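Hi team,

As requested, here is the filled-out complex form for the zinc ion run. I kept the field names the same as last time so the parser does not choke. Let me know if anything looks off before we queue the next batch.

— J.
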Amino acid sequence: MSKYVKFTHERARAEVTPFDRFAELNACRWKLLQLRLIGVDSNGTSFGNLSVRDGASTNFYITGSATGGVPELTLADWTKVVAYDFERNWVRYEGSTVPSSESLTHAAIYKSNAMAGAVIHCHDSTLWTAILNQAPTSSKAVGYGAPEMAYEIMRLFKVSDPESRKILVMAGHEGGVVTFGRDLEEAFAVLMHERKESSSCVDGAFHKRTPHDDEWIS
Ligand SMILES: [Zn+2]
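And here is what came back:
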C-alpha cells in the first residue's frame, strides 16, 4: 500500500501479464534515473513514473507506486492498469504492487491522444520554470495524482495543441513535466530536446547574481 496514491484501487490479478517491452522500459527508466529526472527527493519521497500503452487499448503498463528510488525494477515492480474511472477516482490493475500515483494522468493522455504509445512523468525544475505557461500547462490549483489532474490534461488536449510539442507542464506540481510520444524512444527524445532548449535558453539569457552566489560572499 502506498501513502502517495490518492485513487481507490482494485487488483485484478496478483501477477502482471508478462510483456515484451519490459527491457525497453527498464533501459529508458535507467537513463532517467541516471539523469535524476526520476528518483527519491530529500524527503524520501519517490518521484517520476513511466508507462507504455498495451497495444491499441487504453490499458497500459506503468511503474509501481513508490518505486522511484529502486535501482533496477523487476517485473514485480511493474503493474498493468486494465480499467479506470476518472469520476470514481478508481483504478483496476494487475500486479503485486499498486500502480503509480500518477496513473490517472497517464490514462488521460492515452485517452486523449490515440497516437500516444508512451508517457514519461519526471521532475526537472529548470525545464519546468522555462516552459511554465509557455507549453500547455495544467492549472496551478491542481496537484499531483488527483483525478482533477486527469481532467486538466484532457482539457489541455481540447483547448491547446499538446500533440505538436508532446510536452505538458504541471503548474500545481513543482518541477512536474510530462512528455509523450508514439513510443518510449520518442517520449524520451522529446524530454531530452526540451531540456537542451531550456538550458541553452538559461545560459544565453543572463547569469543573475544573488547574494547567495559564492562570489558575493567575502
Ligand atoms: Zn511528480
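Two things worth flagging: The first strand starts at residue 8 and ends at 13. The chain has one domain: 8-205.

Thanks,
J.
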